[in-house]
Structures are given as structure tokens and as C-alpha cells.
Amino acid sequence: MNCPVCKTRTLATHALEHNLISWKCDDCGGQWINSFQFWKWLEEHQPNHEGVSPRTPDLTSNETKAVKTCPECNHILAKYKVGHSLPFSLDRCGHCGGIWFDKNEWEILQGLNLHEEIHHIFSAPWQHRVRNEERARHLQALFAEKIGVQDFEEIKRIKEWLNQHPHRDELHQYLNNKDF
Ligand SMILES: [Zn+2]
Ligand SMILES: [Zn+2]
Fold it and tell me: Residue 30: nearest ligand to its CA?
């Protein structure tokens, strides 16, 4: 199998996790996970719900934006945004189900304990949530631009305080009352 980024470089097997092999490119650091192997690992893997324990903190992804083709079956890989404020997308083959991770992407997901959720990233509800997150971030940015960053931080602080206040309904009534 050749690297979908470097094209001519051959991928070599790499022991990614206990019971999970990936096909890694020594040039760009990206790696391919075969669909069958991923599902098998997921089934046998003991989920770690003990909380987040990043193995390699402060990694940034080396996302390559170019269109990639599947190293196994040559179909074009589709991009899926990861969300959770992570700036990168994963590339997945819709035909064989294999997944391409650019350098550090697996490690970042692993550090956040999201590597056990990767199959959900490709689902419609996940992608819907990612779009909603993006829309909210976009609206907040517009709002901050309009009222100024400092005032935006202040109103955000006030809103948080309001929303967790035991008398929040009364406080909202007071704010909305035009008579006093
Ligand atoms: Zn490569
Ligand atoms: Zn494929």
C-alpha cells in the first residue's frame, strides 16, 4: 500500500495500540487503519473511562488538505470534521471503511479518549453536532466583533452567572422589565 499523501512511499506496519496495527508512512508520519482491524480492536478493547490521561500532550495535527485516495481500494477518501474544538478532519473511505490519520491525529484523539469514538465521527448525528458547534462559534465571533471583545467577555461572564443562579428566573424578569 502506498501513502495517500506522499503517493510513492510504501506504508509499513506499525503497532499502534495493544491489538491494533496501523500502516504508517515514515515520510509524512500519517497512518492508515484498516476497517476490519479497527472494529476488531474496538470489540476487544477495554474502554478507558477512567478520565483523560493524555499520553502525548500539546500535539498539533499535520493536516494535509489535498484530496486523498484509499490505499486499499483507490476510492476517494471523504473528509469528516472531528469537532470538539479540534481543528482537523479525518479521511475515510466510504467503500472499504478504512481511515487515514495525518501525523499526530490518532495521538490527539487518543489523548482525549476520543479514539474509542472514532466510528461515531462519521455518523450523521456527530456531523450535525459539529455543524451546530461551528455555527455557534461563528455567531459568537460576529457578536464579539459588533460589541467589542472586552464587553463580549463581560456579557459572557454575566450570562454564566445568571444561568447558574438559583433565582435566575427572577433575575431575567428584572432585566426584561422596562418599567424600572
Ligand atoms: Zn506519507
Ligand atoms: Zn477503500
Answer: 1
CB contact at 8 A, 57 and 34: no
Ligand nearest to the CA of residue 72, numbered in listed order: 2
* Cα–Cα dist 164/31, whole Å: 44
Mapped onto helix, strand or coil, the DSSP state of residue 3 is coil
| Ligand 1 centre distance from Cα of residue 2 (Å) | 8
User: How do residues 70-90 score in pLDDT, each as one tens digit?
Assistant: 999 999 999 999 998 899 999
Whose atoms come closest to the Cα of 26: which ligand?
A: 1
Q: How far is the CA of 107 from the centre of ligand 2 (A)?
A: 22
Q: Are residues 99 and 165 in the same domain?
A: no
Same domain, 97 and 16: yes
For the full predicted model, state whether its pTM sits above 0.70: yes
